[in-house]
Amino acid sequence: MQKQVSRKVKNKEYSKYVIVLPSEIVAKLGWKEGENLEAFVRNKKLVIKQK
């Protein structure tokens, strides 16, 4: 997981977190680049699924 600055407004920085998935997992899920995904927390676990 990486923290990246997404934009700067005046003297304030806004950040986002980026999670890198192995290409094998993306292929097994049938996901493509640019696909809309949704994420939520269930039982203290991150769940990511197609919209």
Automatic annotation (TrEMBL):
<feature type="domain" description="SpoVT-AbrB">
    <location>
        <begin position="15"/>
        <end position="49"/>
    </location>
</feature>
<dbReference type="InterPro" id="IPR037914">
    <property type="entry name" value="SpoVT-AbrB_sf"/>
</dbReference>
<dbReference type="GO" id="GO:0003677">
    <property type="term" value="F:DNA binding"/>
</dbReference>
<dbReference type="Pfam" id="PF04014">
    <property type="entry name" value="MazE_antitoxin"/>
</dbReference>
<protein>
    <submittedName>
        <fullName>AbrB/MazE/SpoVT family DNA-binding domain-containing protein</fullName>
    </submittedName>
</protein>
<dbReference type="InterPro" id="IPR007159">
    <property type="entry name" value="SpoVT-AbrB_dom"/>
</dbReference>
<keyword id="KW-0238">DNA-binding</keyword>
